[in-house]
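Reviewers of the previous submission asked for a worked example of the structure-prediction workflow described in the proposal, so we include one complete record here. The input consisted solely of the amino acid sequence. No template or homolog information was supplied to the procedure at any stage.
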Amino acid sequence: MTEVLALLILLTVIAAIITVVTPNLLYSVISLGAVGFLLAIAFLFLAAPDIAIVQIGVEVITLVILIRATLGRETQMIKISRAVVGVAFAVAFIAVIGLFGIQVFTEFPQFGSPVMERFTDAPSATYLQDGLAETGAPNMVTAVLLDFRAWDTLGEATVLFCAALGTVAILRRRARRND
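From that input alone, the workflow returned the following structure tokens.
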């Protein structure tokens, strides 16, 4: 599992470098899309499907907008002479960040170890231990959403309702203009 995740991160870094180095604008946008989709796959491997879904949605919308913006434009190849000192500094900077990333990666806890084993006072442990007694809800998901985090859930529902209402209002206005 760790090897696959390391390979995904390596491919993401390679695609990011291609995005920056490629002189063709359309190829650069496509490489940027590869970075986003590889990150979404990495999120899936890290058991974060909600973040992966958001990443895919944002990536699709961004790619459509950027590809539409680049198609039909006259692209000019720009040649930039880079100083040796600047390239050396960039390589050193990336090497330091890479070493730091490897150090952080080795300090991660074992993949799949629950938070409740590492932190005894984690909210998830409190929810599971005291949830039924405090809320009376046998389903802990319901207890967390409607009792422990009720205001947050109400706020999210309000934002979704306002977004849907705004979309309907905009679509109705356009439909009236067409009539």
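The mean pLDDT is 80. We consider this example representative of the routine output the project will generate in years two and three.
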